[in-house]
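Memo to structure team: turn this sequence into structure tokens by end of day. - J.P.
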Amino acid sequence: MKDSDYRHSLSRRTALLGGLGVATAVGAVACGTTEESAEQLPSDSHEFFGQHQSGIVTPVQDRLHFAALTVITESREELQKLLRDWTVAARQLMAGEPVGEERPLNAPPDDTGEAMDLSASHLTLTFGLGRSLFIDADGAARFGLEGQLPPALEDIPKMSGDMLEEARSGGDLCIQACADDPQVAVHAVRNLVRIAAGRAAVAWSQLGFGRTSSTSTSQVTPRNLFGFKDGTANLKVEEEELLEQHVWATSQTSESNPAWMEGGSYCATRRIRMLIEPWDRAPLREQEDIIGRTKREGAPLSGGGEFDAPDFTMKGRNGPIIPVNSHVHLMHPHQNGGVQMLRRGFNYTDGTDGLGHLDAGLFFIAYVCDPRTHFVPVLRTMMKSDALSEYLRHTGSALFAIPPGVKDEKDYLASGLFEGAN
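Reply from structure team:
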């Protein structure tokens, strides 16, 4: 690319930032921003600054690139600088700008360029910290941050039926990039990983397509790869009281929550392979009994429409019309002490397993205020009793603390973590 062409692209992006108006209202509310702070953003972008990080209650997009990284530097100052560098780059990426600055022709460009002619595509970037960033597998302290380890950031216990692969689990840091355009999401992770060179490296990553939940009432309920509507009862951005109760980590939702996590959340991920071929051979009645909903309309088997409350007491010919081991019955808040999760998962397909079977399924993502009360018990119930588990294999697992949002230009990702450390 000619130097003049690169400068033209930068000028085009600058004009785009100034000329396309205000970011979507829901996106601005989700990030805790005001119209004034979003005035210079393209119409298909989200504000970077805010009380919470984007990509949690932001209306979920259609594409995902999720990456977990291993921190290879032993310097706390370098780790802190990495988070500062990521803050600058994330703000540029979400605004649809190239990363970095223009450089001479005899040097590698700061931006890899594959998104240069694409829009912001509602890109959101969410960053998290794993337990292994604070203490290693032997319990030894890392970076002098052990005193800041959130008690809620415990490893997800091994579950009955787990077939976890080490190469798809854990991580010191994570990046969740969601966008309308897959190339925009991949470009974001690629450039953030490049910025991390010498300080952190990718441990594993996952591409996703076709969201499997809705995070706004304006979105229709999508379908998973089993063909059923997924996420009908998911928490929505408009339900602020429920979000405060179940999603945001505060001193009210968890007494042991450290000060630097106030306004953050916890992200639990599970790579769940679906056994597509056996499922496709199962009769429709069996499929609906396993899920607890009709396949076409997504209505509970007790009747009504998709969003009508299921009646678990209604009797059928052979017992409850919604089987007690159905997915809907076991995962419903009424069966789990009222706890709820904000799900933000995606379908995935990674070729075949070498035996002629699709390696496809769900990359499950859930945001909760405390995984000990809102994720682990629900997962344990599912793995132990859910009839759907016969058709699922959990191959990856990770948990990350998601710091609150970046307040302003003087702030940076997880700044409170370092301010509170000795």
